[in-house]
């Protein structure tokens, strides 16, 4: 990135990555530091609502997300998030506001009580989008010191980084390419399989656990049966399901799975030469250590 202005983002990790999947947050900060990407915390930012408020109280949902966007406007930066659900929720609110001047006026009347104003000047981006569109794949490739040659990696997008496509708009919701492009640049082997854009079952867990476990098993075995040795996902909720509940899913379908699940930042960090101190791979339930050693990488 010599001669290029350093990338600056208002960093919104989301609730899950600050409490449940802390390793995703830590790995992202480490990777950003190695790539000279500046992440600026948003200490006053609120929860986006995780999509739960959208139907229950639409105006509250809009106001909460406009508040986040307005704070980033004050910072003069686009938002980068590592949570696909936060990405979807904030982007959808941003879409709705931009399409409805009356809604903007009403929302700003609420925000004025806390000294904020939404102007629609901020974009919400996911880590993968930043690496591809802003940082650049060629720049990233030059930073790779430990290519992932021989690591048969299955991309898993999940739902919220792809849909609704009119609010997100980076990838084709049916035929996305961003994760494949990143795996390729990192030197890994891309595994093609049919379930990479499907739901992991996260929101089914609390309603019908048996159905959710079947969904998880199908996604993981779909990748494994096509030769996949591991999965990479940009979504912390998908990671929770596919990693933490993998043992239960395997037992449910009576098949061994044993598929390490990488957060996107962890996979990037491995290729950049980082160790467990930065990437916290030891927090992953299904350990990737043995898999990485088999391709000559010691963490």
Explain this structure to me?
- This protein is of the alpha/beta class and 299 residues long.
- The protein has 2 domains: 7-125, Glutathione S-transferase Yfyf (Class Pi), Chain A, domain 2 (Up-down Bundle); 137-294, Rossmann fold, CATH 3.40.50.11810.
- It has 14 helices and 8 strands.
- It has helices spanning 15-19, 22-34, 58-75, 84-98, 101-111, 127-143, 165-168, 178-185, 209-224, 236-244, 246-253, 264-271, 276-279, 289-294; strands at 7-12, 37-41, 79-81, 124-126, 152-155, 189-190, 230-233, 261-263.
- A 4-stranded parallel sheet has the order 2-1-3-4, with helices on both faces.
- It is globular.
- The mean pLDDT is 96.
Could you write a compact summary of the structure shown?
The protein is of the alpha/beta class and 299 residues long.
Give the number of helices.
Answer: 14
DSSP helix fraction? 40-55%
Bulk shape: globular
What's the main sheet like? 4 strands, parallel
Overall number of strands = 8
The averaged pLDDT comes out at 96
Structural class: alpha/beta
C-alpha termini separation: 27 Å
How are helices and strands ordered from N to C? Answer: EHHEHEHHEHEHHEHEHHEHHH
Quickly give the CATH architecture of the largest domain. Answer: 3-Layer(aba) Sandwich
CATH topology of the largest domain: Rossmann fold
């Amino acid at each position: 990135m010599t001669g290029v202005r350093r990338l600056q983002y208002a960093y919104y990790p989301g609730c899950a990555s600050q409490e449940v999947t802390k390793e995703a947050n830590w790995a992202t900060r480490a990777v950003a530091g190695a790539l000279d990407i500046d992440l600026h915390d948003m200490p006053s930012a609120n929860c986006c609502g995780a999509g739960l408020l959208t139907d229950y109280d639409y105006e509250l949902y809009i106001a909460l997300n406009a508040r986040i966007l307005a704070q980033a406007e004050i910072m003069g930066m686009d938002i980068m998030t590592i949570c696909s659900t936060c990405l979807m929720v904030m982007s959808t609110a941003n879409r709705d506001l931009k399409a409805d001047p009356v809604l903007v006026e009403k929302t700003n009347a609420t925000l004025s009580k806390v000294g904020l104003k939404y102007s629609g000047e901020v974009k919400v981006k996911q880590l993968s989008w930043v690496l591809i569109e802003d940082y650049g794949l060629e720049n990233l490739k030059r930073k790779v010191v430990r290519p992932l040659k021989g690591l048969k990696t299955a991309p898993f997008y999940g739902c919220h980084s792809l849909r609704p496509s009119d609010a997100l708009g980076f990838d084709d919701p049916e035929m996305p390419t961003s994760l494949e492009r990143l795996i390729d640049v990192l030197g890994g082997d891309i595994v093609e399989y049919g379930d990479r854009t499907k739901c992991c079952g996260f929101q089914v867990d609390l309603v019908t656990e048996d159905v959710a476990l079947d969904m998880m098993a199908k996604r993981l075995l779909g990748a494994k049966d096509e030769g996949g040795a591991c999965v990479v996902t940009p979504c912390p909720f998908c990671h929770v399901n596919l990693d933490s509940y993998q043992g239960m899913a395997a037992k449910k379908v009576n098949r061994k799975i044993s598929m390490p699940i990488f957060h996107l930042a962890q996979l990037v960090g491995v290729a950049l030469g980082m160790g467990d101190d930065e990437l916290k791979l030891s927090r992953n339930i299904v350990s990737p250590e043995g898999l990485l050693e088999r391709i000559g990488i010691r963490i």
